[in-house]
Hints:
Number of helices: 1
Number of strands: 21
Distance between the termini: 86 Å
Helix content: 10-25%
Mean pLDDT: 86
Strand order of the largest sheet: 5-6-2-8-10-12-14-20-16-19-18
Largest sheet: 11 strands, mixed
Low-confidence stretches: 27-31, 119-129
Strand content: over 45%
Order of helices and strands: HEEEEEEEEEEEEEEEEEEEEE
Amino acid sequence: MKKMEKANRNKLYLWLILVLLSGFILMSFEGCSLMKRKYEKTETREYKISSAGRNKIYVENPNGNITVRKNEGDSGSIIVRADITKYVTKKELNNPLSGIGIDIDTLGTEIKISDFVDKERKIIQFDIGKGSKINYDILVPSNIDVRIDATNGRLEFEEIDNDIKAEITNGNVKLSGVSGNVKVETTNGNITAKIDSAKSLGFETTNGNVNLTLGDNFGGIFSVETVNGKISRKNIEFRETEENGKHDFRGLLGSGKTEVKISTVNGKVTIERKY
């Protein structure tokens, strides 16, 4: 009985120590920015980079949207516009953003763009869902390949003839008027594309749908697969088709040689002529 009472007392002491220690930790943060209310602050920055001697732009962005468009006004330059957002204290609203920025490496033939975030005081995070992000609007000339590696956000490509390779984990991808070699992969997201012509198309998603709308003159060699979903064709006629139920389709469209590969695990594929 005495041993049991002693054991219970020791548990009570340990519990009291843990409560006091937790209180001390919370009090120690009470006066610092981690415990204060945060406000969204956004700064816009713009960079102009010469494309002379460069053949590729590589953008790595863990949080934020990316739009890539053709640089109509200056074929010798790449324009990078970035909206940088961070949650700051009320006092910091009046100061320039610190602890987050953009690193641009132009030493080689490939331009590399990535963010840098000050990891200081990030051990405890009280502002769940209020992380920093950067939204990019990038204008590129025709002779630059585009490579995107993103995690959370949305990707859009508009009216460019550049070769594109894009990968994103959580986010939708939208393409309109692209005409180069295009390869897009997303884990959790939909792929939507409106295409008149292209050198090649490769769309792959794990959890999401693929919607491909083709111009009247688009032709190619199609290979389409879905595991848990169906393949739908609207207002479009293929020839020399091979089908395996609703999940596997191959066929030729028109007289074009463009190779088109589409696959999704959990989602449906829709191919149509509309515009």
